[in-house]
Amino acid sequence: MNRPLRRVAAACGLLMVLLLLNLNFIQVIKADEYRNDPKNARVLLEQYDRQRGAILVANDPIAFSRETGDKLKYLRIYADGKIYAFATGYYSHIFGRSGIERSEDSILSGNDDRLFVRRIVDLLTRESTQGGSVKLTLNADAQKAAYRGLDGRRGAVVALEPATGRILTMVSSPSFDPNDLADHNGQKVTNAWQRYNSDDQSPLLNRAFNQTYPPGSTFKLVTAAAALSSGRYTVNGEVPGPARLDLPLTNVDLPNYFSGTCTPGSQTTTIKRALEKSCNTTFGAIGMDLGDDVLREQAEAFGFGERYEVPIPVVASIFPNDLNAPQTAQSAIGQFDVRATPLQMAMVVAAIANQGVLMKPYLVEEVRAPDLDVLSRTDPEELGRAVRPQVAADLASMMVSVVENGTGSNARISGVRVGGKTGTAQVGNGRNPHAWFVAFAPADNPKIAIAVVLENGGSERQIEVGGNLLAAPIARAVMEAILGR
Amino acid sequence: MSVPAPAASQVNSRRTTELFLLVFAWGISVAAYANAGYGVTDEWPPGLAGYATTLGAYCLVAHLAVRQFARYADPLVLPAVMLLQGLGLALIYRLDLDEKNPTERSFGPLAPRGDSGIQLIWAAIGILLFVAVLVAIRDHRVLQRYTYTAGAAGLVLLALPALLPAQYSQVNGARIWVRFSGFSIQPGEFAKLLLIVFFAGYLVVKRDVLALASRRVMGIDLPRGRDLGPIIVAWAASLMILIAERDLGSSLLFFGVFVVLLYIATERTSWLLFGVVMFVSGAYFAYSQFAHVHRRVEIWLHPFDPDYVSDASYQLVQSLFGFSTGGILGTGLGQGRPNIVPYANTDFILATGGEELGLTGLMAIIVLYGVIVHRGLRTALAARDSFGKLLAAGLAVIVALQVFVVVGGVTRLIPLTGLTTPFLSYGGSSLVANWALVALILRVSDAARRPAPPPTPSTEAETMVVKP
């Protein structure tokens, strides 16, 4: 029996060798892949062993980590969570990260290469590694004013500093509380997640960056810019201004929101007057005259068609392709398939207020090491020239006139000259239009450019006045906060 | 003239070597226990001295029993077993400490705390049984007399959980328990030993008939039905019982041991081919007919499938993550997060070892099993009687197969089946039965290595020699 016994012994040896080879395969060859797999709960627990860096507004932390007694050693806490929810994002051990928590994760977690030397020192001194902090460009007062102004209604506010592109305000409403998702109790987090996701108001949707709306009459600024840039139109030159504009190829007309011609008793008007009164017929006619390619180029010069990372990703705004004449007329007044994010419309106004120069929007002011050394500071970056300085100046003065003499009366601030433009975007299907207001102030030295949108905010009867009635007061409150009024 | 066999006293029994190795195993085990406690709590375990004394006493009792009752037994087996036992206790203790932690628990089901204390008691019972076997069975050939008794008893024990109502026998889907008043054992673990005794005893009697008396059918030599009948019946019955109890791992073990012993006894390779064909067809049948087998195979093939990963294959995937997190050197005892893997202290104790002791530690553990199997098979080779050969071979092979199935399962080499890791896993029945198994190996080994009694001096012999 010894011969088969020896063979069995060899076979048993082979089995052991197979086990050893497989262990080497898993623990050496596949080790890195498995170890860093996001489904590996250890990766997450590891992260909670380090003190994650804070997210700051001015010098106040709006997100920070506090030590707890449990195994997830640090709990993420959000001060004024709902107000800053879409800037900070959430940090959840079950549902991952969003917002700055995600975009700036490497610095907040301490994994960033710029912190490498500190990590080595920490390792040697057996200190636990700390994350660096991120200071945002947001203005606390403006942020609060915008949140209060939206008052839980669906909508968004984005404000920029025209000269730099710093994002001063970024609020989406309704909001969520990131503290609910950062809780260490898995059941609580899952419940909150389900509650937010099943809410038909979509409180997890960032309407400022990730939602596009028809911009409505606020897009007339882009059409006006294209007209003035073409050299064929001037601010006070004669342009068509009928009560109804005949659209070729169709048997429908494009009417003004109010009955009547732009200038009473005349079939013509000026661009200035048309913008003050937000005449559809004038801008429809100009749009058809310029053609869709010219409008698209102008829109793209203002930033349409691009995705941005601020560093939170922002979806692209769209000016559609291959339009016929009536579609071009509709697009020229911000209807048809034109879609814009609130950030995009704030960028249009910012470029007008900044003598035509479009700045790249950004949300991160500074990145700091755990010991508060500044590791990097964001430098303003030019994206390009949207319009010539003279055209920008013309547009700006017309916008001041909109507030002072036209539809934007609710944005007036005493002692400050404000430029603005209302918009009321029809969405069809019998739903209420979106109310828009874009503005900048002060006119002579702009410190803020802002876009406000309220979803389905206006009513069918309040066409056009919806923007002034509902959105303009919010814009004014935010501007007052920035200007210290 | 033949050379006279050396006197018993001249053969080195190697008991001192064993003692030295036991001290080594004891030292490593106590250090691991202390390290695990320090790693988790940053303090030395409160009962360290008591623990060291207890484990030392275990070593001493086992050693003295071998010295007294199996003097010539292999000196490597007991230290290897004791080291595995000690490492298992350290790992279970380490997992106990983590159970106090509320957050980590949300990543896996809750296990009762204080398992290491219970396991320490089971180890004591195991070692007492070890001693009892050595004392009671002074010659392993005695067992051969109980061939059929062992077979019948084995089958009854195996069938017991299937016959009991589920409330007394079912835990986590497998009906392999007997539970009464807060106490539970797996009779199958003991049935394993009895059935090996039966296989060995039966085959040793029938091996010549099985090997020689055969009919040739389609070019293959088949034994006569009446020779093979009883063993086929016993084997098939055990397989059916195990299938009824959903104990896939044990089915595999019984099948493997049965085929291997048949091959050793008859020296016919055709049995192996036969076994492979039957295994493949049986496995395919189970795969296509039983949903739970099908599921195991699917999980094995696609563990990272999003449909499985957070549910069906969660355990396997987290186990793989544990192994890879440990890497080559491991995180160190108490420094990893092994409790993420559900059933970390029973079926998946190797994932705990893999995470905290690393590839290095696991390879050492595999090699320890290799030593036990190797010494078992050497005992079989050296045994002077056929029954002893088959018994030792059966015991060694079942350890080898069990280790292969368990380690292969948790590392995704083969589909996962729920089996304990001998001496490491938390659980009394398995531990106690395996201590009895070791005692049997040592018993055969003692007989094999014992010097032959000196020939009776005879003057008559000389006179018979025809001198030229």
UniProtKB/TrEMBL annotation, chain A:
Lineage top rank: taxon: Bacteria
Ranges where the Penicillin binding protein A dimerisation domain occurs: 52-134
InterPro entries found in the cross-reference section: Beta-lactam/transpept, Beta-lactam/transpept-like, PBP_dimer_sf, PBPA_dimer, PCN-bd_Tpept
Penicillin-binding protein transpeptidase domain boundaries: 155-480
Descriptive protein name: Penicillin-binding transpeptidase domain-containing protein
Protein species of origin: Sporichthya brevicatena
UniProtKB/TrEMBL annotation, chain B:
Pathway annotation: Cell wall biogenesis; peptidoglycan biosynthesis
Main subcellular localisation: membrane
Catalyzed reactions: [GlcNAc-(1->4)-Mur2Ac(oyl-L-Ala-gamma-D-Glu-L-Lys-D-Ala-D-Ala)](n)-di-trans,octa-cis-undecaprenyl diphosphate + beta-D-GlcNAc-(1->4)-Mur2Ac(oyl-L-Ala-gamma-D-Glu-L-Lys-D-Ala-D-Ala)-di-trans,octa-cis-undecaprenyl diphosphate = [GlcNAc-(1->4)-Mur2Ac(oyl-L-Ala-gamma-D-Glu-L-Lys-D-Ala-D-Ala)](n+1)-di-trans,octa-cis-undecaprenyl diphosphate + di-trans,octa-cis-undecaprenyl diphosphate + H(+)
Keyword Transmembrane: yes
Pfam families documented for this protein: FTSW_RODA_SPOVE
Enzyme Commission number(s) from the entry: 2.4.99.28
Low complexity compositional bias, start-end: 458-468
Region (Disordered): 449-468
Membrane topology value: Multi-pass membrane protein
Membrane-spanning ranges: 19-36, 48-66, 78-97, 117-137, 146-164, 184-205, 226-244, 250-266, 271-290, 357-377, 389-411, 423-442
EC category: transferase
Signal peptide (residue range): none
Keywords annotated in UniProt: Cell shape, Membrane, Transmembrane, Transmembrane helix
Protein name, entry field: peptidoglycan glycosyltransferase
Organism: Sporichthya brevicatena
